[in-house]
Amino acid sequence: MLSDPVTAIKGIGEKFAEDLATLNIFNVEDLLSYFPYRYDVFEIKPLSELIHDDKVTIEGRVVHEPSLAFYGKKKSRLSFTVEVENIAVKAVMFNRAFAKKQINAGDIITLTGKWDLNRLQITVSKYKLGPAESQAEIQPMYSVKGDISNFKLKKVMQNAIRDYADEIIEFLPDRYLRAYKIPERRKALITMHFPANRIDLKHARRRFTYEEFLLFQLKMQLLRKIKREATVGNAQVFDQEKIKEFIGLFPFPLTKAQEKSLNQILSDMKSPYRMNRLLQGDVGSGKTAVASICLYASITAGKQGALMVPTEILAEQHYQSLTETFGDKANIVLLTGSVKGKKRKEMVSAIENHEVDIVIGTHALIQDDVFFNDLGFVIVDEQHRFGVEQRRTLRDKGLKPDVLFMTATPIPRTLAITAFGDMDVSVIDEMPMGRKEIETYWTKENTFERVLHFIEKQIALGEQAYVICPLIEESDKLDIQNAVDLFDQLQEYYPSDVNIGLMHGRLHADDKENVMKQFAGNEIQILVSTTVVEVGVNVPNATIMVIYDAERFGLSQLHQLRGRVGRGDMQSYCILIADPKSEAGRERMRIMTETSNGFELSEQDLKLRGPGDFFGRKQSGVPEFKVADMIHDYRALETARKDAQEIIETNLLEQDAAFYQLQKKLENDSVLTDKLD
Ligand code: ADP
Ligand code: MG
Question: Residue 350 needs a FRET pair 20 to 30 A away by CA distance; which of 76, 237, 256, 342 works?
Fold first, then answer.
């Protein structure tokens, strides 16, 4: 059986089994699913097509006995001449004296190694007596460690396939194999280990790519279905007329994308299922406007709403703008860590009595002593800072509100549909009309004077600037511009009527707030800061964003920082000061100057960095696929997603006999039970 321990395979003893266990291979099935991580292709080409310094394979006849020379300590050099296409080619082989006996004049031999075009010489890394088996030999390369060699692994793989291949069964319904012209499982699996040619290999990989994506999507969507059904009972009945009226009070019409997202959210809130939705949109795309309409909708349904943000500064900004938007339509309070004592007690009791409609704050607002009377709707701003723990807190209090996560970090579609497969996603991918595009420039440090001069000119027009640098303390290891130094430098450079502020993570919360307030009120014209201003700060009068050592930031972070300007009607500028040493770094700077669309940019970022790095290694449930590649195989991912959706929606797993094996496979994988916390 495929579940037999690997020791059941001929050639695998206890010691080998222990080594295999370090690769997470325990039973026969694990071994068979351990695919090569790459394939070396040895293709015989005419001499005239061989490229200098390339790894090549040639086939020829040995002209005369190899001669062997020893040098240094135990080093040897074996050389001989081979006739290839009537041309004499010299072959050299290092430290393989034993081969002298095997290679004889007149033999046909196949050699692989590095090609020296000038000397017509090959430095052999691999040789085989006799002619090449085919014009292109494909050699599987497994990721191995310890005592396991590629050779040994291939050997036991061969045995495993010989003895167990019959037990490999197909679990994909025939209709998909036919529709996508993909090989059945057993054949594809054998090909993955021992490909006969490139075309077979390509199709085998296509099969496993689809299989991985389909299983993944099915698991995610089943999970979502289970979660939904577990949360029945919070349908909100709101007043459509009042909502329309409320929307009419905005001084602008909603964009198409805002309208679409709004309708998706409202229809979730109306449904009996608990909403679990991500609202994505670039900075300034109008997410907050949509969110406030939803908050209002919830109020007309007689519910309370909450808005949770990562920092107190942000909470305060939201509080100001929402009290303005709502006027006397809602009683809004700001509940942060700095609300203490009697004031806090009063606020908490007002929330409990439903005298309060909307609570805005940091995580403090779901703390132990805060009880809502009837919480219907929660917005979490910047989803990646809100974890499982907070969700649990809400649930432990018996609250089942609809939850909307908002993020201005545009997540590439590719990642969104995998990483957030158990969440619904709305996207605002359109900017309100009349927004001026931020002009972005990339310069080297030697133009800093000019940059400073430019800032001075804009300040004279009444505008403001941010100057961002990566770290706050001098490090002798890294040559990093330091915020404090820069602050001193700027104070020296500018006349005393230009006020400069300093902001970094080590400041006290009070000081931070003070500096931010002064900047928001234009008492400070230039804010020198580390990246603490990254999230959500809104000062429309700031039009210049200078980012020092910009190569130290990722594209998404640069884009976030750039989003701090361009928030008013004035033309804004982003100046990247960077001298990247790597090509990837230069590429990032170029992309920044050319692309202002956050989604486009995030796709590029993903390509440059790969999915693991995109979210940061530890975070997120970005899945690891064995064969599939989320970026490269994007189309297959889409296809698998659609198929999974159809399978779940029409309940094919239970109703169609053709899906029986697939159903069993999913049950065996039992991922569903693990994931429900
Ligand atoms: P986000 O939360 O996505 O950063 P906001 O909702 O704060 O964006 O909107 C940014 C600015 O654009 C605000 O000043 C807001 O009043 C304005 N705004 C929002 N939606 C529109 C629209 N449809 N047309 C014009 N301006 C809009
Ligand atoms: Mg609902």
Answer: 237
